[in-house]
Structure of (wild Malaysian banana) hypothetical protein:
Amino acid sequence: MASHHMLLAVLVILAAAVAVPQSAIATDFTVGDDSGWLPNFNYSSWTQGKEFRVGDNLVFKYMQGAHNVMQVGGPDFKVCNTSAVAINTFTSGNDLVALDTPGRRWYMCGFGDHCTRGQKLVVNILPAAISPASPPASPPSGPAS
């Protein structure tokens, strides 16, 4: 009887592990992939085909002191207003930015003319993926011990 309960417990654990969809797992997106965060890069193209969700993170990699990451509002982003009061400013060179609420976010470099040279990124953050309810595990068939 104990082996029957153990088998049932293992099956339930396996069913729960398999039921977690890949999209429910948070993703760290390295902005610009191997190129990183720098001017003269097409970040609009970089975002194509990517789905950013609450719980994911953006990772900005750049040479500390040569760039930064300013989170700004849409109007300041549109005109590359680097003197804008930033919502957040990151300067470590390896910045992890949590995407914690749905909506649009705007990021740009505040150094020199970097923003006007393309060092800016807009992302649309979708709500967190909801795992579909998994059916209850059925007990193994066969004679009871």
